[in-house]
Amino acid sequence: MKLKIVASVALLACIGLTEPSLAFNQQDLEQLQATGVCPRCDLSGADLTQINLGGANLREANLKGAILSQVNLAKADLTGANLEAAVLNSANLTGATLTGANLKSASMENADLSFAGLISTNLEAANLQGAKLQFTNFRGAHFRLTTLANGVVTSDKAYDWSLERTTVRECNRFRTANVPGTTCYNQ
Predict the structure, then answer these.
(1) Which domain, by its residues, includes 101?
(2) Residue 25 falls within a domain, yes or no?
(3) 111 part of a folded domain
(4) What are phi and psi of 46, to 5 degrees?
(5) Which of 88, 162, 176, 182 has the CB geometry, 3.0–4.6 Å to 108, for a possible disulfide?
(6) Predicted pLDDT of residue 158
(7) Interval 84-110: pLDDT, tens
(8) What does pTM read for this prediction?
(9) pLDDT (0 to 100) of residue 15
(10) What are phi and psi of 142, to 5 degrees?
(11) Could you give the CA distance from residue 168 to residue 177 in angstroms, rounded to a whole number?
């Protein structure tokens, strides 16, 4: 009986409880460095510290867990990119497009996000402490447990003024008709 338990625990540890490793595609990295164009690239876990990627096309790229500290991403297109748990400390994202990007648990301490577009971006548990946010567009962004530039952590509840409504009753609270772009739109 004890042998079965030990065998079961060992099997679960080997199969079900292990975290998948982050391994980037070397060809994608070489393409990015050569051309600055790499949409849908797999650069998960890559160390891109201090690389100049100004104006790069990284639409829908997988940068999960990537280290992008002090990287120049000014005017880069990161639309729909997965930057979950990425490190963007002191990165230059001036004028970058991050529409629909996933920045969940990303660290952007002292990053420059001036004039950047973070429309409908997931910033859940992201760290923006010390970041420059001059004219940054956060329209429709998801701030839940996010550390803001001044060190304040946002609430873990949906804001009453946001487009996120949790019940149908709340959906009818601020509108008189179906409004495209809200989570309550019924069509």
Answers:
(1) 31-151
(2) no
(3) yes
(4) -70, 145
(5) 88
(6) 55
(7) 999 999 999 999 999 999 999 999 999
(8) 0.73
(9) 46
(10) -100, 105
(11) 13
Q: Which of 89, 81, 39, 88 is nearest to 63 (CA)?
A: 81
CATH number of the domain that residue 96 is part of: 2.160.20.80
Domain-embedded: residue 177: no
Q: Sorting pLDDT into bands at 50, 70 and 90, what band is 177?
A: low
What's the pLDDT tens digit per position in 12-42? 454 444 444 457 788 988 899 899 999 999 9
Instruction: Name 95's Cβ contacts closer than 8 Å, sequence gap at least 6.
Output: 74, 75, 114, 115, 116
- Give rounded-to-5 percent helix, strand, coil for the chain: 15, 15, 70
Q: Is the model's pLDDT at 5 over the cut of 60?
A: no
Sign of CA dihedral 36, 33, 21, 126: negative
Amino acid at 24: F
Number of domains composing the chain: 1
CB under 8 Å to 41, separation ≥6 — which residues? 25, 28, 29, 31, 32, 58, 61, 62
Which residues, at least 6 apart from 35, have a Cβ–Cβ distance to it below 8 Å? Answer: none
Quick check: is 86 in a domain? Answer: yes
Residue type, position 5, single letter: I
127 forms beta bridges with: 107, 147
